[in-house]
Design a protein that fits this description.
438 residues; nine-stranded mixed sheet; 11 helices; globular
Length: 438
């Protein structure tokens, strides 16, 4: 009888082990697609600077790309897409979802973000202000771009294979500065700081953290490397008339050369008040390469030495919230009915893969908000919180109440006023708690 009980216990233990192993298997696939339009055949403006206006871009310096990472566990999968664009318009996201119908990717489990390059193609947002400032909406361009993005997602899905997650983070001070410096050291036209900038000033908050998420196959070869770092894609200015992914593109190319065969994705964080620290070089294109290489060199040892982390479960939540307060943008009151037509509701989302959570917001948040959200997520139980800024839409800037009262460019484009930060942070923390129960 004792032998029978022992065998039964062993059988139960093996059953539990096999069940856990089956549940814990992560599948991953990654792919990329070129989304650089033909600017010789079509008049395509950028959407980076009002000073550049509606003028069409004249050529291509370097390509803009879409990168897709698909993670799947059991019957649930998520698609994480990064784009070398200034933002993700409602029209573009909707077009991508239309092309992914039947592929298991929908509004809930698609996380699509933009690097915020100011030299990428525009004309993919259908509202009056964007059309007036940057050039009218081009439906064909939106649909063509969506074709390439959806193609990358489907290619990533077709290449799913057993995978594991690794992560690392480190501080890289000096790569970014706070452009809302009280000393007014930042010039928004030249995108450069003068000598009055003092990094020791407590008002000059910066998020110096670089986070690297590495997705390896069963033989520990990287399939994808995702780099998170918060700063603007504004090395190239309004006088640049060439399509470019700006410094994030240079960084991604540098790391892809270091890891042949891996897809390198870049995810911008809470960059609303962050500007890249420009080297002492008057040539913007040279600065772009230098900054991209500097970030890549800071991320490289993190990618090389990343440690395994739990990858289960894979889950996602997206909620849409209407914020019923007066709306102002660029210092102008916008009638509520008109604004709701352009932005009917704000998508706030979270994506979880084990110890990792992506907190996805359609905003340019200032760094203090991003740091607060990351700290909150760690308190909930996520060792690797990643801010996915400019995600699933673009609702302009987000400041703290104090920074809103200070005024300035970012505060003037915080459309829902000083209460918005609390609402967004609270909603994201609730999403994080909900995902923790998965």
């Amino acid at each position: 009888m004792k032998t029978i009980r022992t065998l039964a216990s062993l059988g139960l233990a093996l059953t539990l082990i096999f069940a856990f192993t089956a549940r814990a298997e992560l599948l991953a696939g990654a792919a990329k697609a070129d989304i650089t339009p033909n600017v010789q055949e079509h008049k395509i403006p950028s959407s980076g600077y009002g000073a550049r206006g509606r003028q069409p871009m004249q050529g291509v310096h370097d390509p803009v790309m879409a990168k897709a990472l698909v993670l799947k566990s059991g019957d649930f999968s998520v698609a994480i897409v990064t784009l070398d664009l200034i933002g993700v318009s409602r029209e573009l996201r909707r077009a991508v979802l239309e092309r992914l119908q039947g592929a298991g990717i929908n509004d809930q489990n698609l996380l699509i973000t933009a690097s915020h390059t100011h030299s990428g193609p525009g004309a993919m947002e259908k509202n009056f202000i964007a059309g007036l400032v940057f050039g009218g909406y081009q439906k064909w361009l939106t649909e063509w771009t969506a074709d390439q993005i959806a193609g990358a997602v489907k290619e990533a899905q077709s290449g799913l294979k057993p995978a594991k997650l690794k992560a690392a983070s480190g501080l890289a001070p000096g790569l970014t500065k706070n452009r809302r410096d009280p000393a007014k050291s930042y010039n928004y036209d030249t995108r450069r700081f003068n000598n009055a900038y003092d990094p020791r000033n407590p008002a000059n908050v910066t998020d110096d953290e670089i986070i690297v998420l590495r997705v390896d196959d069963a033989s520990d070869q990287p399939l994808a490397i995702l780099v998170s770092f918060a700063t603007h894609g504004t090395v190239l200015g309004a006088d640049n008339m060439l399509i470019s992914a700006d410094w994030p593109g240079a960084m991604q190319r540098e790391l892809e050369a270091a890891f042949p065969g891996a897809v390198v994705l870049y995810m911008n964080g809470a960059q609303g008040d962050q500007a890249p620290a420009m080297p002492d070089n008057p040539d913007d294109l040279a600065c772009m390469e230098i900054i991209g290489k500097n970030v890549a060199q800071a991320a490289l040892p993190l990618a090389q030495n990343a440690l395994p982390i739990p990858a289960e479960p894979v889950a996602a939540v997206l909620v849409r919230r209407e914020i019923d307060v007066p709306v102002r943008a660029m210092g102008v009151h916008i009638p509520k009915l008109l604004f709701k037509r352009w932005y009917p509701s704000m998508p706030l989302a979270g994506v979880r893969a084990g110890d990792v959570i992506f907190l996805a917001v359609p905003l340019e948040m200032i760094s203090e908000i991003g740091l607060t959200m990351k700290q909150g997520a760690k308190g909930i139980g996520y060792p690797v919180p990643i801010i996915a800024g400019l995600a699933n839409g673009l609702f302009l800037y987000l400041t703290t109440p104090d920074e809103y009262d200070e005024g300035g460019y970012e505060a003037g484009n915080t459309v829902y006023g000083k209460i918005e930060a609390g609402l967004v942070i609270g909603e994201e923390m609730m999403i994080a708690r909900k995902l923790r129960k998965q």
